[in-house]
Protein: AraC family transcriptional regulator
Organism: Candidatus Eisenbergiella merdipullorum
Amino acid sequence: MAYDINIKDGGLHVVSSGDPFNSERVSQESISINSCGYNYFDHNEKRVTVLRPSGRLDYQLIYIQKGAADFFINGEPMVLEKGSLILYKPGETQHYSYYTSCPTVAYWVHFTGVFIETLLRQNHLWDNCVYQIGEEPAFSDIIMKMVRELQFRSYNYQLMCNAYFQELICVISRTLHKQQAPSMAQYEAFIPVIELMHREYQVNRSVEEYAALCGMSTYYFIHKFKEYTGSSPHTFLIRIRMDRAKNLLLSTNMPVSEISFAVGYDNPLYFSRLFKKYTGSSPSEFKKLHN
């Protein structure tokens, strides 16, 4: 099923792509995309209604990017506006009507596979039918990438579609997580510090410098940093350094003294004691154990 419909005066535009033989198939693969696309309704006099009393064999996600639609969820009428996400599982009644009195845009994807239930459960998208994710441009961008893959069918297009679909689920899950934990926004100030620690782990900076980078007092920075990461800034940096040291021990022939200096310690004996404290073995023992 790969088609484009464009009724310029009537205002109905449909772009869709998918399996040319059966867009409602059930696959025994981990993930498989049956079809996807979008509907655009603009001042069309006829109300567009979808009624599937027995549902479909596959899953369906619908995202209302613009406008609104009437949905019947568990027999109850609901008006769902832009930013709404609807999930239909196999066999669930599907009954909805798109508003055509105002511009309405809805993106959708039909999918199947033995891993789908696990994927949805892991991302907290199983217990409900309707989710509010707000304006999420990434949703339409990813769907259109999937449409192009299904239309052109380049080498490994199925694998690419599956990857895009998992990205889509991840975007939805992250969006919902941010809504459920709005306080996470306050921790975004730590991102530059954490990136700096990973990038320049060998540089010895004071906690005051890190706090200033976040625009916080030293005490408040230490308190909030530990609340966010579970570790103090000092311990967090040591763990980064120890991870890097382990990598150097296993992937190079550098002596311990050079590795010590490379990860930010001028004293190899101090480095060795610290390494044993965090890993349970000395650098030389660690190398023997893993080689």
Q: What stands out?
A: DSSP finds ten helices and eleven strands in the chain. Residues 186-290 form a domain with the Arc Repressor Mutant, subunit A fold (CATH 1.10.10.60). Confidence is low (pLDDT under 50) at residues 1-15. The first helix runs from residue 116 to 122.
